[in-house]
Amino acid sequence: MYAISVCLERVQTMLVVGTSGMVQPAASFGLVAKKAGAFVVEVNRSHTPQSPFFDVSLQGKAGELLPQLLEYIDL
């Protein structure tokens, strides 16, 4: 778990995709990254308990939203 924490604290941008935000320890990954200064985007069918803490929370199907997101950021 230590190695994961180190990575989460160093990431600049994080996508949190398709999670209920309820199962630990994965549910806290986005929050750890955000606390360390990362820009965090959540992509999920509905809001999660963490949604208010992220920079962007997109609701919908990941298979539809992720291609649109990639096109928007021109990757």
Structure description:
The protein has a 3-stranded parallel sheet, sandwiched between helices. It has 75 residues and is an alpha/beta fold. The protein has one domain: Rossmann fold. The mean pLDDT is 91. Helix 2 (29-35) links the parallel strand 1 (13-17) and strand 2 (39-44). The relative contact order is 0.19. The chain contains 3 helices and 3 strands; from the N terminus they run H-E-H-E-E-H.
**Shape descriptor:** globular
| CATH class category name | Alpha Beta
In whole angstroms, the N-to-C terminal distance is: 31 Å
Q: Helix count?
A: 3
CATH architecture: 3-Layer(aba) Sandwich
Brief characterization of the structure:
By secondary structure, the protein is an alpha/beta fold. The chain has helices spanning 2-10, 29-35, 62-72, and strands at residues 13-17, 39-44, 56-59. Strands 1-2-3 form a three-stranded parallel beta sheet, sandwiched between helices.
